Amino acid sequence: MLVVMQAGATPQQVDAVCKRIEELGYVPHNMPGAQRTAIGITGNRGTIDPASIEELPGVGEVIRVSKPYKLVSREVKPDDTIIRFPGTDATIGGRELAVIAGPCSVESRDQALTTAERVHRAGARFFRGGAFKPRTSPYTFQGLAEDGLKILAEIRERFGLRIVTEAVDHESMDQVEQYADVIQIGARNMQNFSLLKRAGRSRKPVLLKRGIAATLEEFLMAAEYILSEGNYNVILCERGIRTFADHTRNTLDLSIVPAVQRLSHLPIIVDPSHGTGKRNKVTPLSRAAVAVGASGLIVEVHCNPEKALSDGMQSIFPDQFDTLMDHIRPIAAVLERSVAPRNQAAEPITVTSAASR
Ligand code: PEP
Ligand code: MN
Question: Please, what are the domains in the chain?
């Protein structure tokens, strides 16, 4: 159920409607829009009698939401969600493409800072790097945990990059939440409902990756878990799905981008690295992702991919990332989007042997 307030409704009238919804035993979700405020109602098992809400001052109409997902849907919020990072020019879902780049894993201070310097110089506003890694084998590198998060915090300080990093469970979420600007929930955890609810109670934006076999509806329902707990800053990410095709690691399903945009106000970005698993396919699929209208890219870049402790085969070299950024600029312009400009080279990075590994 959705309450659409009249265009001129006052904040007091919105509060009174929220209060009435609570009195009825449901949860109100206030979604202000450019034209008018909508209030989503969750927590109801059956249908709600609209009569007791319809008559309140400032209410335009009370409508039934036809989709199984509610808060993520455009019915509830027609305008695109734009996620802002106060004190910076970084946005996700706005006119500027959100470019997130960095290694699969934070391996050392030297590796992370060297890579960060290059992606910052190329114009990325966000840095990625896992400190907790969901690996297929328990015997491979699992991440530096809090030491990795501290390196990421240093990168934010030094380059002004916003940090995107993954939480794999409740324990890591407690730590990731303290250091990250965006909490990543990986493909393997897309339907970890208790983790989704925990992310929904966080105040940090959440990057939710599509599960390897998730349908569009399952993907949106997973996001709905996060919104239903009160966190409306969710970014969806297409990262490839499992198919019979074996020339790539996964099959990047770019058609989900316009499909999501039709149904949901949430931004959707594309991960061409996990989506293909092959370095030589990352730039072509990045171009395609921008052309299809994605709100951004998350790309694995490594200063020395041949030595990477995870996902080296799909990590591009910093020079290749420069080219990728040059290629997407004119494509973004066709869609009236922009890409942040290049930055000057930073001061040389000093790496002490004690701090590096
Ligand atoms: C990652 O971003 O490094 C990662 C593990 O992604 P995914 O969950 O999409 O496999
Ligand atoms: Mn990876």
Answer: 2-63 (3.30.70.1140), 83-334 (3.20.20.70)
